[in-house]
Design brief:
With 272 residues, the chain is α/β, with parallel strands linked by helices. Helix content is 31%, strand content 23%. It starts with a strand and ends in a 5-residue tail after the last strand.
């Protein structure tokens, strides 16, 4: 594992330091729309990666929160556990599982140079959508010895970045155990989940399908990254509302419009 520092000067372990600032920036949006974390809350961090959301949630809850962090990729899971130990998260339960419809096993594609994009639904590195998103992430992070790429004319720059992106998105297949959220709720005897954060690279609908009807009443708030593929955004919103979650807000950052990625916030009103 390597080590880097966040913008708030906190030191963390990670497989890839170049990617950490992008992940950290995304987490700041999760606190919008009144999605505060209180002392004593129980939180599910689904797609925990190296634990940046878990660390931030502990800060929001004055470190008096219980977090169940799900991360299936072995290298990333090691960094997650190391960060929890380094920062002395007291009630932290790391779970080396991918969250899906049911318990089992699934093959993931792990991208060592783009760990946050690791997924059970591999990316097509030749698609324009993936290339554009990759370009947006790559250019600001180029190390000094590659800064010459920024000075290239548009066409040679695009060709060079395309080759670089294919190197970065050279994935490795890894078998991962899966679990449903209802499995986790039962196994750990959880009466209420105050917040579920879901960021699972195109598998978000499978995560929601793994919550049994009786367990939906235990869920108070959800913030979820949704890839709007074949009407998935509307399907996710319908599922949330059908299970009593209200005040649904769909937010899209300007830079995510061309990629069809939204952040969806939903909460259960008191007594509903």
């Amino acid at each position: 594992m390597l080590e880097t520092r966040l913008p708030n000067d906190r030191a963390v372990f990670c497989p890839n330091p170049l990617e950490v600032p992008i992940i950290f920036e995304q987490i700041t949006s999760y606190s919008r729309h009144g999605f505060d974390v209180k002392e004593g809350d129980t939180i599910f961090d689904v797609g925990a990666n190296i634990g940046l959301f878990s660390l931030t949630a502990c800060d929001w809850g004055r470190r008096s929160v219980k977090i169940f962090a799900f991360e299936p990729i072995p290298a990333t899971f090691r960094a997650l556990k190391a960060n929890a130990e380094r920062h002395q998260l007291r009630e932290f339960v790391p779970l080396q599982y991918a969250v899906s419809r049911q318990r089992g096993e699934e093959t993931f594609t792990y991208y060592p140079l783009a760990m946050a994009m690791s997924t059970a639904h591999p990316y097509d590195v030749d698609s324009d959508n993936v290339l554009k998103r990759g370009f947006r992430n790559i250019l600001p992070q180029l190390p000094r010895f590659l800064r010459w790429i920024e000075r290239l004319p548009p066409r040679p720059q695009a060709v060079t970045l395309r080759l670089l992106l294919k190197i970065i998105l050279h994935g490795r297949r890894v078998a991962c155990r899966t679990i449903s959220l209802s499995d986790a709720i039962r196994e750990h005897g959880i009466d209420q989940v105050d917040l579920i954060k879901i960021d699972v690279e195109k598998a978000e609908f499978e995560v929601l399908q793994g919550i049994d009807p009786p367990d939906w009443k235990k869920v108070q708030k959800i913030v979820i990254e949704v890839h709007d593929i074949e009407g998935r955004l509307n399907a996710v919103v319908d599922v949330l509302r059908s299970h009593g979650l209200q005040d649904v807000v769909c937010q899209q950052e300007p830079e995510m419009k061309e990629f069809g990625v939204f952040t969806v916030f939903a909460r259960r009103r008191t007594g509903s």
